[in-house]
Amino acid sequence: MGFFRISREFEVCNNVNQVLLFLLIVTICGILYKKVHRGTVLRNETDDDSETPEDMEDEIPVVICAAAGRMGAAMAAINSIYSNTDANILFYVVGLRNTLSRIRKWIEHSKLREINFKIVEFNPMVLKGKIRPDSARPELLQPNTYMGYLDYRKKTIKDLGISPSTCSFNPGVIVANMTEWKHQRITKQLEKWMQKNVEENLYSSSLGGGVATSPMLIVFHGKYSTINPLWHIRHLGWNPDTRYSEHFLQEAKLLHWNGRHKPWDFPSVHNDLWESWFVPDPAGIFKLHHPNS
């Protein structure tokens, strides 16, 4: 119990559907462990460079997905993290093959050039056989209970013994113990439940975004504790007419513009906070769309 720390709001269910920004939008996973699973990695250092055991021990990997259309969001998140900590951070920036050179250029030709980073290529083929053809990833209204994510008409779901009224959690920001992750073979468990959905259509893809969230709800059930809500202030992109108090935002540790109203677009709220960490795109592709920009 408790080796996964996941954001869940107020520990109670409410009647308001929530928007979950997941995966290809700025997904931040701070992993407090000295090693990360090795994949196809492009380093910002030469292969001859080596790290001492002391450096590895203090290193904190942070994984961020850099979706092509929202790469500016990833860069702003990296800038904010790097500028607000003295810790030895190693950024793993994940992208598709056709975006890797752009990611590298953005980092190496901007104020981010001093960060310690690795670029990781995501191969979509790893998802073969694990995603249904009808699966979608739009900005969906998200339910607050397991009922909205799992199809309780299916025997496989009923046999889990999880009450449909159980409050769901938001896996958009997690801190994971990678020793336990590997020991309990969490990746294999998640892949198993993704494959089961392809075979049996177990998840409510129309409401709950069954591609990623539903398997996590199953695998992490009873194996997580919540993080301080200040480490995941959500719904900043929910409604352009709804604002948090400035005092509250100053106390916040992590801001999340989940929803349709992104801080680089118009209309949006609290975009001044986001813009303070914005790193201009050297290629001039990603641009702000504000009346005064």
What topology does this entry show?
Elements: E1 4-7, E2 18-19, E3 28-30, E4 41-43, H1 53-58, E5 59-65, H2 71-83, E6 88-95, H3 100-108, E7 116-121, E8 141-142, H4 155-158, E9 170-176, H5 178-183, H6 186-200, H7 213-219, E10 224-226, H8 246-251, H9 271-275
Parallel strand pairs: 1-10, 3-9, 5-6, 6-7
Antiparallel strand pairs: 1-9, 2-8, 3-5, 4-7
Helix pairs in contact: 6-7
Q: How would you sum up this structure, described in words?
A:
It contains 9 helices and 10 strands. It has helices spanning 53-58, 71-83, 100-108, 155-158, 178-183, 186-200, 213-219, 246-251, 271-275; strands spanning 4-7, 18-19, 28-30, 41-43, 59-65, 88-95, 116-121, 141-142, 170-176, 224-226. Helix 2 (71-83) links the parallel strand 5 (59-65) and strand 6 (88-95). The model is unreliable at 7-48 (pLDDT under 50).
